[in-house]
Design a protein that fits this description.
This protein is an alpha+beta fold. It contains nine helices and 21 strands.
């Protein structure tokens, strides 16, 4: 199994991207807090992983013409169309859909090939969070006071894209691998229930499930997919494009709360990316960190990690992208990483702008589908 993994830094110089909401512990309930997590007794602002995923998905729709899967609501459940053939975001971001409980109660689920961490501040809240006090005064009468937190920090996040799963859908009786529901599976489940409770199911419901499955298969056939008994594999060009788009979208990500007041550029200012066998991501921790109010880049740790896992690095190439104006004092350390790995590790290292590094890494990801 091959994975495209990476780490990104976002320069959130004045931001309130993902809010916790009103602080209800205060009597006036007029203070809006940012989300924070605690580590070793210290709080750090963060952006929830689902918020980052939402921006990522939205960027794919806006910049890469992805047709988004429609949303449906049934009682307390919200779900997408669960059609990864037609909708690339169902394919890449996964889904869960439960069919009417009165008619079988089976679910289809797809484990997301794209996994990501939260975006976590490198600075603790005591060094990065500010309480902004304001007044709503455009109405008649006394101004209404309100307060909200925002922060100035560097956000760090990491991701992993499981390349073999993109464009491949299973029909197995196993959690996470029943991506599509065949009517035979439903009938088998209903037969078991009937023996236990003597409950039946309407023919209309079975016909609806059958029609839905057959429509998905028909569309896959038209697109040139390989249809197997328990698996559907999309054409190489489809899988290649979807995976490449996901990586390239990193260049254009936008979104976030409070943009009217704290306009923030969400595009990464620093990235490290590579392809590994197995699913590890050695870039998540310790390579970039805060120390005494400064953000440090640990070139020795990065070199150690690459050498430690070079037997899983496939192909043997590391991509590093840095914005020209971001952390100018890192340039010499990046040169050290490249010189050491090329000389002693027989590993190719591309140090470039963020845009060039992302584009070249996306091309490498696309090549995987052609050569495998």
């Amino acid at each position: 199994m091959r994975f495209a993994v990476g780490m990104v830094l976002v320069n959130a110089s004045h931001s309130a991207l993902n809010m916790f909401g009103i602080d209800k512990t205060l009597p006036d309930r007029m203070v809006t807090r940012v989300k924070k997590l605690r580590k070793a007794g210290v709080s750090y602002p963060y952006v929830a992983p689902q918020a980052w995923r939402y921006w990522w998905r939205k960027t794919l729709v806006e910049h890469f013409d992805w047709e988004p899967s429609p949303m449906f609501r049934e009682e307390k459940q919200v779900f997408t169309a669960a059609n990864p053939v037609k909708y690339p975001d169902d394919d890449v971001f996964g889904y869960m859909k439960t069919f009417n409980k009165e008619n079988g109660g089976l679910s289809v689920t797809r484990i997301s090939p794209l996994k990501n961490t939260p975006l976590v501040s490198l600075f603790p809240d005591r060094a990065s969070v500010v309480l902004d006090e304001g007044y709503a005064s455009r109405h008649e009468g006394d101004a209404v006071p309100y307060s909200q937190e925002f922060y100035s920090t560097i956000l760090k996040g990491a991701f992993s894209l499981e390349l073999d799963s993109v464009g491949k859908y299973f029909m197995l009786n196993k959690a996470g691998f029943r991506n599509l529901l065949k009517v035979e599976a439903l009938e088998e489940n209903l037969e078991k229930r009937k023996k236990k409770s003597n409950r039946t199911v309407s023919e209309k419901f079975l016909d609806e499930i059958k029609d839905e499955y057959e429509a998905i298969v028909s569309e896959a056939e038209k697109m040139g997919a390989e249809i197997k008994e328990r698996e559907i594999v999309m054409p190489v060009e489809v899988r290649k494009k979807r995976a490449g788009d996901v990586i390239r979208a990193l260049r254009y990500i936008s979104g976030g709360a409070k943009q009217t007041q704290y306009l923030t550029d969400l595009t990464p200012k620093f990235v490290i990316m590579a392809m590994f066998e197995g699913g590890i991501n050695p870039f998540i921790d310790e390579i970039v960190y805060e120390e005494e109010g400064k953000i440090k880049f640990d070139s020795e740790t990065l070199i150690f990690r690459i050498i430690e896992f070079k037997h899983l690095l496939n192909p043997s190439k590391l991509f590093i992208g840095k914005d020209k104006g971001f952390m100018k004092n890192w340039d010499e350390k990046l040169k050290e990483v490249k010189d050491f790995l090329v000389t002693s590790g027989e590993i190719e290292v591309e140090v470039a702008t963020v845009g060039k590094a992302i584009d070249e890494f996306a091309e490498l990801v696309e090549d995987y589908y052609i050569t495998n």
